[in-house]
Design brief:
Layout lengths: L3 E5 L7 H8 L5 E4 L8 E5 L2 E5 L12 E4 L4 E2 L1 H13 L8 E4 L3 E2 L4 H12 L11 H9 L12 H20 L11 H15 L3 E2 L1 H10 L4 E4 L24 H5 L10 E7 L2 E3 L12 H10 L11 E3 L3 H11 L3 E5 L9 E10 L2 E3 L12 E8 L16 H14 L2 E6 L7 E3 L3 H7 L3 H7 L1
Bound molecules: inosinic acid.
Length: 445
Amino acid sequence: MTNVVIIGMQWGDEGKGKIVDLLCPAFDAVARYQGGHNAGHTVKFGDQHFSLHLIPSGILRPGMRCILGNGMVISPEAFFRELEKLHAAGVVTEGRLFVSNRAHAVMPYAPLLDQAREAARGKDKIGTTSRGIGPTYEAKASRYGFRLGDLGTPLFEQRLPRAVERVAAELASLAGTGAEEAPSATEIAAVCRDWAERLRPFLKDTEGLLHAWGEAGESVLLEGAQGTFLDVDHGTFPFVTSSNSTAGGAAIGTGLPPNAITGAVGVLKAYATRVGEGPFATEETGEVEAHLRQRGNEYGTTTGRPRRCGWLDVVSARYSRRINGIQAIALTKLDVLDSLAEIPVCVGYRVGGTVHREYSMELEHGDFEPVYKTLKGWQRETVGTLEWEALPPEARDYIDFIEQEVGASVSLISTGPRREETLVRRGPALEHLLETRLDAVIAGR
Ligand code: IMP
């Protein structure tokens, strides 16, 4: 049994979807453990493109079981929409898609609160995806939220009016920012009864399923959404999402005990991007930003917003390696750097006269400047390269430098968007993580 968590080492959008898809043959099931339809990845399936936000892309692999774990916040509407798209394309989901009855529901008023709160923040806005993710986690922590398994029950009907009253009062107080009125409790109750009915075939005690599968020796891939620096505890607070996207969240968000998680793969983009507001030490503007955005097609899958772009930061990547216990790195979008003559990498932060070599939250307060080491570019196409020796020597130096600075082996190198455009470096890290199933991953590439 190997239960491996896949984590974004930056601010999300590192290309986790492709890595999850690539590693699927080594696992029996895929589980998500946090976030909701704020996440998104585009998956190619035959000649079709799918934008999936909630359901793991593993669903496109025949027979693969998928779990939406208790740590997620789930919009039933978004879930049914994805399901319809999958069914229209002939994907069979019966008997292999399970949704935790403990996951919290993104209620119809949650996106209204999200938008109104953002408008009220004005220039201090977070830049959320407006999907209602923050208000749903807030309602969970404040204990007026509803789990999917609560919807439509007598207890739900009894508690709903108080929750709606609370939301209506907040929306009324934000009316000046253009906030919409909350729907009535009666309207919401009717919607939720319908949701409860349609969700019934999917709702399960998913932690029990995972325990049973583990006891039968089966392996689960735990798919993190967003990234380390969007984690509500370890990220650039308050410019973060509302859940624990780091590896620790995988235990809480699935009900697997921490010692059942046997490893972590970190997905690191060869440069850096961020959507939404908040600190971004290596952000570039002008030509460099335009080049990275255009070559890397850096636009949000969920909101279509252009992503902010800049250079790789190995100081924060090392912090991410430590927080998540990352044993192997999947380096993505290397080919986006192909035409550059020089590639700066952030190796420290200067605050006043002092250079800090380790990441610290205090840096987020100060006026810090990145300290760069400039590496030589390779100025040759690497798209589709599958052998280490076939990479230009400067690209190998770039990767060796990342390994040394971050402290984990770069075992997978993505040199294009397609599954087959991935260089797999056999070695102790991947052998430990995937055990005997490494060959299946290489064969399925
Ligand atoms: P929220 O998760 O919608 O509350 O947004 C909080 C912050 O996380 C914003 O900066 C979003 O842009 C960012 N965010 C949320 N989900 C993703 C994602 O999947 N990729 C990248 N950024 C995300």
